């Protein structure tokens, strides 16, 4: 057992299909106990529990985020990407940002109804809604629960612009909606491609689609007229940065017209989870990776300042930026990190009458269900 900047590093058994190696408590737990009897428990199964959300649209005014409204249909993500910046949000549920984040999921079963209500508010200001800003809207459980599709149906019905961020090839399932909306300038899709190395992908993001499957999804979307952005994210020094030009070229061939990249971010619990993963899977490269990250973060493991956290600073970060710019110019990507955020002039809000009628139907339906079956919560 060795120590590295207060992180206790030990060899652990790798759980097949899981990114995180441990399941430590969150930052809100008052104590943390390090105890290991050397016996790994069984590989945890994925649980997906229904919840009734109280609100559905999240809003932000961050200067380095190109959208102000977003919806996350799911909490937690089965893709299991060890680097995922959404992991710390699981602490708000009193769950671990480690294995819990990948296995103890929730879906917002009333998401579409809440969205319809939100769009009907008299003071609602239409601007593009991003699906997948935190957790992936096309993670595997979407096949069954279809919350993302329900949201798209509401947005399509009311001609509301939407932008999607995903690494899930399942996005092509909804091409009927996406293509129709894209024809009116109401839709764009950003697909994250981290690596085309199947061995690295299997360790880094175990339950996400392969890089080649994501490129195929890009091609399908682009052929249907949906604007596609490549996100080369995250860039991990000495692990996948050498793939930048290749991935940009392959995505351009597949039909992507804009591109962006993000340097690996390690806020809160992600730092320990990623360093543990790195020493387990790439022990000979670990210190070099960490050194390059710190050189790009003012000597720290993370720099949370606006306009610094996404790209970093310093020699390595500057070189990365130059490589990206040169490759984008050579390959013919258009200027700007994201495509058009979508037209707002076509928006037709739900009428009060339709909203009230829907609420009445919901109430009557709930009464019938309670009469014959009793109230219950569904789970997966």
Explain how this protein is built.
The structure is a single chain. By secondary structure, the protein is an alpha/beta fold. It has a single domain, classed as pyruvate-formate lyase- activating enzyme (Alpha-Beta Horseshoe), CATH 3.80.30. It has helices at about 100-105, 110-120, 140-145, 145-155, 175-180, 200-205, 210-225, 245-255, 270-280, 285-295, 315-330, 350-370; strands at about 1-5, 5-10, 45-50, 60, 70, 75, 105-110, 130, 160-165, 185-190, 230-235, 260-265. A 7-stranded mixed sheet has the order 4-5-8-9-10-11-12, covered by helices on one side. It has a 3-stranded mixed sheet with strand order 3-7-6. Strands 1-2 form a two-stranded antiparallel ribbon. Helix 5 links the parallel strand 9 (about 160-165) and strand 10. The radius of gyration is 22 Å and the shape is globular. The protein starts with a strand and ends in an 8-residue tail after the last helix. The model is unreliable at about 1-10 and about 355-380 (pLDDT under 50).
Characterize this entry briefly.
Helix content is 34%, strand content 13%. The chain contains twelve helices and twelve strands. It is globular.
Q: In terms of topology, how is this protein built?
A:
Layout: E1 2-4, E2 7-9, E3 47-51, E4 58-59, E5 69-71, E6 74-75, H1 99-103, E7 104-108, H2 111-120, E8 129-131, H3 142-145, H4 147-157, E9 162-166, H5 175-182, E10 187-192, H6 198-204, H7 211-223, E11 228-235, H8 244-254, E12 258-263, H9 270-281, H10 286-295, H11 315-331, H12 352-372
Parallel strand pairs: 3-7, 5-8, 8-9, 9-10, 10-11, 11-12
Antiparallel strand pairs: 1-2, 4-5, 6-7
Helix pairs in contact: 2-4, 7-8, 8-11
């Amino acid at each position: 057992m060795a120590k590295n900047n207060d992180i206790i590093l030990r060899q652990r058994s790798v759980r097949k299909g899981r990114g995180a190696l441990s399941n430590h408590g969150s930052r809100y737990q008052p104590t943390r106990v390090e105890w290991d009897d050397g016996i790994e428990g069984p590989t945890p199964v994925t649980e997906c529990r229904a919840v009734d959300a109280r609100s559905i649209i999240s809003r932000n005014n961050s200067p380095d985020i190109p959208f102000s409204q977003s919806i996350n249909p799911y909490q937690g993500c089965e893709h299991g990407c060890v680097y995922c910046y959404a992991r710390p949000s699981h602490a708000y549920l009193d769950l671990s940002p480690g294995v819990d984040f990948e296995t103890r999921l929730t879906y917002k079963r009333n998401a579409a109804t809440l969205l319809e209500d939100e769009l009907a508010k008299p003071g609602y200001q239409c601007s593009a809604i991003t699906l997948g800003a935190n957790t992936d809207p096309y993670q595997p459980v979407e096949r069954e629960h279809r919350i993302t599709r329900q949201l798209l149906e509401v947005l399509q019905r009311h001609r509301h612009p939407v932008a999607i961020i995903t690494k899930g090839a399942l996005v092509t399932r909804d091409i009927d909606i996406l293509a129709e909306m894209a024809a009116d300038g109401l839709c764009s899709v950003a697909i994250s491609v981290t690596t085309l190395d199947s061995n690295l992908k299997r360790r880094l993001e175990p339950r996400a689609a392969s890089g080649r499957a994501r490129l195929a999804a890009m091609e399908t979307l682009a052929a249907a007229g949906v604007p596609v952005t490549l996100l080369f994210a995250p860039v991990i020094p000495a692990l996948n940065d050498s793939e930048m030009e290749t991935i940009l070229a392959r995505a351009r061939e597949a039909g992507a017209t804009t591109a962006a990249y993000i340097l690996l971010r390690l806020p809160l619990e992600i730092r320990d989870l990623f360093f543990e993963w790195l020493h387990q899977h790439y022990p000979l490269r670990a210190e070099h990776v960490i050194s390059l990250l710190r050189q790009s973060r003012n000597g720290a493991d993370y720099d949370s300042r606006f306009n610094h956290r996404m790209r970093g600073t310093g020699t390595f970060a500057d070189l990365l930026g130059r490589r990206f710019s040169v490759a984008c110019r050579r390959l013919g990507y258009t200027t700007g990190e994201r495509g058009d955020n979508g037209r707002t002039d076509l928006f037709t809000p739900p009428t009060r009458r339709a909203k009230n009628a829907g609420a009445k139907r919901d109430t009557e339906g709930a009464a019938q269900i309670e009469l014959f079956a009793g109230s219950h919560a569904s789970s997966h």
